[in-house]
Automatic annotation (TrEMBL):
Keyword flag Iron: no
Lineage, highest ranks first: Bacteria, Bacillati, Bacillota, Bacilli, Lactobacillales
Top-level taxon in the UniProt lineage: Bacteria
Organism expressing this protein natively: Companilactobacillus tucceti DSM 20183
Name of the protein in question: Lipopolysaccharide assembly protein A domain-containing protein
All residue ranges annotated as the Lipopolysaccharide assembly protein A domain in the record: 25-78
């Protein structure tokens, strides 16, 4: 099982646990928002907070990655270019040494 499959299975198990917990807690509760009070079943509150948490996690996990990827990509290209120049000069030096050895024979 690869990483994506195991993460999916773990996510399903956690979701199932939350759903079972929510179904067992259907009593109405009062939620205060400071300026108002709302009375709703606990199952609705649990599911809404779970969805809000998932949305916040998704939004926060995707921020900043594109900038870092661009920087990483630029840095990787620069390093690759430097490596290529270094390898080219090493090859040229080796060819010069080889030519020198051939001429001395």
């Amino acid at each position: 099982m690869n990483s994506k499959q195991s993460r999916f299975v773990i996510g399903l198990v956690i979701a199932l646990i939350v759903v079972i917990f929510a179904i067992l807690n259907v009593n109405p509760v009062t939620v205060s928002f400071g300026f108002t009070h709302i009375k709703l079943p606990l199952i609705v509150l649990i599911i809404v907070t779970l969805l809000l948490g998932a949305i916040i996690t998704m939004l926060l996990s995707s921020t900043g990655n594109k900038k870092n990827d661009k920087k990483l990509s630029r840095n990787a290209k620069k390093q690759f270019s430097n490596l290529k120049v270094s390898n080219d000069s090493q090859i040229a030096d080796a060819l010069k040494e080889n030519e020198g050895k051939k001429q001395t024979k």
